[in-house]
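re: that chain from earlier
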Amino acid sequence: MNNLLTNRLAWTAAFACVASFGLSVEAVNVQAAQIEVADAPDSDLALTLSAISGARRSLAVNIYELTSPQIADALLERIKSGIHVDILEEGQPVGGLATAARGIQTQLIKAMHQARNGDHFFEMTSNNGTSSVKRRFAFDHAKYIVVDGDRLLVGSENYSPTGNPETSSVGNRGWEVLIHDPALAQSFQKTFTQDISLSVGDVLDLTAQTLTSNLSADDWEAFEGELTALADANSSTSAHFATFDSTGVQRITSPETSLSGLVGMIRSATRTLDIQQMTFEASWKSTAGNSPLLDEVVAAARRGVKVRVLLNDESVFNHGNTSKSKNPVTARLLNQVAAKEKLNLSAKVANLKAMGVGAIHNKGALVDGNRTLISSINWGENSVLRNRETAVLITSPGVNGFYENLFDQDWNAGVARGRMQNDLLVASEVNFEASESFMQSECPESLSLSVKFGTFTVTDSQDKDFEALSGKVLQGKFLHAPSAKGCILMETPADDSSTKQRFLELRKDRKGVTQVIFEGYTAVHVKLYSVRARIGSGEVVKGTHSATLYDGSGSGREKLTPAEMTVSELVFN
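^ sequence. v structure.
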């Protein structure tokens, strides 16, 4: 391990890298606030829905991934009730934007047009439709909502079936809080306003691109009636969450203040430091050596702090390819130093099955029994120095105690069992190249589809939902969504519930290979499934093709069974 003093020089270069962005740095330290707490998989969906439904004036939503049908429905209801809603979503997430995410975008944009309340759906991307531009951030990985300009919902989880799972459904481990403080909320609102600026060219206003699809006079009259009914029926969610007072909340954002904020947090520890992380990289290219966060963790142990580091089992993300794993390397380095120097420091990769979660997606830390980090920031170079990320460091023994109890349970669940899932979807299949989406002129107006699944059995109880598809045939007629970006077709049930929506997307790469992606949600725990078929260049879409059913609800993308996809009808204008 590199000497800490030697690494200080390299850190200077990392700080300089942050400064080179030319972004404003705003320090907001709230003196006191009331904090509602929740965790994934147990209660964060309820807290997220409560925060959204509680809005009376406005919502500003910044999210990396939005595929949760329940959260989509809550946003739709607020839009239709006349609440002003602005949404910023990452347009180029790792693995590509899910077909369901495109479908939800379409639903929300349509509602925004109908409400005529000046709402906007923004997408951050390097492709502005005509050329490629340099993005301000590698990824917009933030996860927060500003409610009415005076409350802030912030956490580690995406708005997805695994990040915000239904009650009794297994999902990620994550932390989320709702902070009642106008000053902090306004500081995040200011960041949101800066990030949705169209002047750089890395943000598209998807609502402005599709304003031609207005309602007819008759449709508008019917919709006005719907708005009135929703407004009359609306009331605040009555759910109650553990609530604690805090004496201070520090705002931390990437790329502006993450490095200094996280380093300062670790240096402030005098007695205990508990860290729970999805990803903790041991080395950084910009420092040509150890991660500064790794060195600070070791330095804390050397000055007598009791340190525990609990890391995700990356086999759920890396599809059994241990050569890509970062967390075992970090755990091994920390434990080697601890053994050599007899430090009160221990690190381990979690036993996810024993914890009862699908993955550790958390990016949190606990300091000295009174400070808690709630964060979207993975402890890697990209997240700290290049992404848009958001975090809060809360001073409150009550908040700390709530999450310390969870951490102790997770820590005592034991180490990973070397889980290897060789049947998981390989990266090349997840990251299907879609450099050329279907042009609007190529996209069918309607498409009839039939999918026949093979028989299969799922061993994990969390995934038993999918067995309802075993040996079954699903059929549907999908209609083109003209307000969608790309070739998106949707099947809408009579009750218009997002949980029953099904989506279909056609993609084409530079070699002319077409991918048909069919996605929907399971009936019990509302998990996302994905069926994918590839059609070679020169082959016609209409006909029968080999396909595969995947668990699309999480990052594992587990392959469930082969399938047969038949496109029986395509109608073009």
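The chain has three domains: 4-14+247-411, 35-233, 427-571.
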